[in-house]
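My hope is that you will study the protein record below before we discuss the fold together.
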Amino acid sequence: MFSNLSTTNARAGITGVCPDGSFFVVQQASEIPCKGGKRVDPADLPPIRPEYLPRPYMWNIYRESADPNNPYNLVDSVKQVRQLRNGGMPQGDAAEAGRAPAIAQPGAGALKGVPSRSSVAPTDLGLTDGELRDLFKIIELSQQSAPAEFVKQTADGREALRVTFAHAASFEGRIQDAWSAAGAAGRNPVLLFSVVSKRPETFHATFTITQGPVAAQIEATDPHQLGVLQGHLGKLARDEVVLGYIVLPAAVDLSRPLDLYWDDRHISAQF
């Protein structure tokens, strides 16, 4: 969900800083969550302390809920095994736990704070194999002037997974033209990303972007926010590659520094 704290005073209400270094954005003075909080104009807020920056909290919750070794999940697993041994099907809570979770259909509704526009599928862009190779090359070469990459390592320090970002004005323009052709104007900035696995790995696009008071947690299942041009998310084989893009809030300025988060990793970049 995109959120933009840099709104008009009428909408933002009161902004400020608490004695512990946390920020607050409230509608009324009675809602200020601390004693002695200092009111500050949004444009004058100091840098956010690292411990208060957005974290992929929901991804951690999902990972715990999907962990087969989580004691909470083991209870249902034991029930299912006993039912199957007795020649029956799991019942009650165990049966519900055994079903695959329903997958929300992308584009089912407009996101709060995001202009409604028609979904543009990666296939709608008409990219050729040569153009896809060029995009990979652009990402690689961009690291010389605007480095922006995450490297996941094994316990012994070897590279396991590399996630790299880059900005390509020509590709961004192509996406924006596709939005216009679909009947929905949008000038949101777009970043390319590539993923290269050096061993079998599972990749989830749990990206969060912050820039000043603007924060965006990318929803990987929403085609308005993320598209995969080549490859797929999820389980990757050794030497498998993924090419995709993410759509940022319109308020993000790529010429200024921003912070990128993936899982529990963080980098600062400027495109």
